[in-house]
Amino acid sequence: FLLGFDAEEDLVGSLASMSTNERIKAIQKMPETMRKKREIRNKVLREITKKSRHRGAQCTQGTQGVSFRRFGNTLSEYFHQLQPWHKTLKIIGAEFGTSVLSYFVFLKWLLNLNIFSFLMNFGFITVPQFLAAEPNNLSFTGLELLTGAGYFQQTVLYYGFYTNATISKVENGPSYNMQPAYIFTVGIYFVICFLILLFSVARFFSRNFKLTKAVSVNANKLLCTWDFNITNEKAVKLQQKNLLTQIKEDLAEVNKEVLNFSVKERVGRIATHLLAWVVSLATAVAACAGVYFLSINNLKLFMKGYSNDLQRQTAMLVLPVIVSLLNTLIPFFFSWLGHLEKFQTPGQHIYVTIIRNIILKISIVGILCYYWLNIVATSESQCWETLVGQDIYRLVLVDFIFCLLGSFFGEFLRRIIGTTVCMNLGLPEFDIGRNVLDLIYAQTLTWIGILFSPLLPGIQMIAFLIVLFVKKVSLMRNCQPPRKVWRTAQMTTSFVFLLFCPSFLGVLSVIGVTVWRLKPSEECGPFRGLPSMYAAVDEWIQILESYTVSKWVVWIYHNLISSELFFFIISAVVLIVTYLYWQIIQARKTMTKLLHNQITN
Amino acid sequence: MGNKQTIFTQEQLDAYQDCTFFTRKEILRLFHRYRDLAPQLVPLDYSDKPAVTLPYELIGSMPELKDNPFRQQIAEVFSEHGDGNMTLDDFLDMFSVLSEMAPRDLKAYYAFKIYDFNNDDYICKSDLEKTVNKLTRNELTPEEVSLVCEKVIYEADVDNDGKLSLADFQHMIVRAPDFL
Fold first, then answer.
1. pTM of the predicted model, to two decimals?
2. Between A35, A74, A216, which is nearest B156 by CB?
3. Is the ipTM of this complex over 0.90?
4. Number of domain units in chain A
5. At A166, phi and psi to the nearest 5?
6. Topology alike, domains B10-98 and B104-175
């Protein structure tokens, strides 16, 4: 790849005319040896100083540019130091490969989302509330950390404590109106989250799902999937064995004729699959019904009052424990069911089990939301939002405890059993699918709870940190590298998509119903007395109307945000643009096919 | 600005930063890794650009490369004379391309050279056979290896010349999201 002399002159010329950043990127990307790159770089720098001298610019500009770049470099080095997990993630990638690493990267990403949410809520809602706090008369016993009730009911942890007044410390000084602050902070956080998730999903899809011609399966497997990250000898041997098995299977399929099932066998297989699906859906429905009746029972007991405090505390914990137990045990049942129906490939088994787990989790969260929004909100309790917040707090906490227990039993004890009692079981593997679904479930609960308990992201943040640490230690000590093939890029895309589509959009609809349809409680919270939480925005707009400076905000609100015609026009425009892009993609596909035919002939 | 070090001149460090994807600290750390392989051969002062080469055996014993089935090819591709013995420049070059900050096209270009065992700028059938054997630890029969190689060429060869050129290889990489 030696450049001719003329080509090199052209290259130097084009590099010299780029901006500094582009030039550096272009030099870094050149597939040449270091020596050649240094020569070219020096030539380019000489060219640049020659040009600037021609133009009469000062010589100091060149050195200023260099020292500015050096400053930028040291800044980026310090920024790198701020990411404390970098080394940990690298070690995990080296020992276990990129598939297990994708779980930890996902966890870190969720942790960042929660940190952002916590900072927003704390800064805009909690800190002003501290200035106008009422004294707390309740006593603190240790059990409150688990149940979230009692002492915590009168703290900034829950919606009910926040005032609906305008807070001002100094007479005639700047005032802080809590009502619009609360609703706008939550609203803006969700909008930002929506945009982040949308762009992430789009980026992953464009990178990982090339929906062009059929995949070149074999070439792909041979040349592209070797994980060069791995430096552990055992992991390397496992990967080689994996590839060997895959190639052997492929060859066996080629040599043998395609297995033609007889009609009776095919019907039998379809019947087995149908039966398994019916059983799993029935289990999910049964779990939901159980949760629903248990929670209604709970509410009835709560309204009636309890004989003593201890009974009340334990009764409050029954629901979260049952929900977490269902979430932990039913997936094992699904996995066993999947073993019974003989799938054609192990990949199918994994996908079907994951889909069933998703259905289970969605239905449980769905039934809980239905219970909260329809039953609790219309009950005669004093402060239903705080009740919902407490429920969510307990669910999050018990789920976190079960996650730690699951790690203990699933990995630590399993390793001990596998190495001492039952030698042929061996070390456990890290179950990526189940762990990622647990993360998505926990994040869904947190998002639902932001409106009712503004500090919940902070609690979830601490929980995620502990989970990260525990999982990492457990992984290094107890697990072996994965034996099955795991197509990392596809699965990461699916997980981010799952986080966006059922999880986040579901949360948005729940929050939407809460803000627009439900009546806030009369005696507590920042929206007390209003017909709905959204009415706070209307009131704020009315206040703004009295100031001439902000008339444009009022105009935008009346004519754009609350008018249906505007949204109709935007939807029509988006649909037209989508249709045009789709046609362009079809045209490009035809073009690619034509060019391909030209090359081969 | 920052720590004082006497190994490189500031200009050398600037040149390294411009030509690789590493920051100053990473370059110094890599230099110390290079030096740790053979402290008596590598001087601590590089400002007069000494011509020091480390033999392949030392490079191949690094923990990052020790278990990699392609370590010999990797060292040969990045070394100056194609024999596996690397200077500091080659060393930095190799790690720069293999780091996570390098773009995929650059990695694809070097991956092509690594898989090209006979250095004829094409991946022919014998190159593929050697690759398959390295990836499966010689546990497939020769007929199976041959069958796999034929299938790979059939699928990936766009211009139908019986071997994979750089363009064919890059065309395949673009559509493979798992390539690292």
1. 0.82
2. A216
3. no
4. 2
5. -95, 120
6. yes
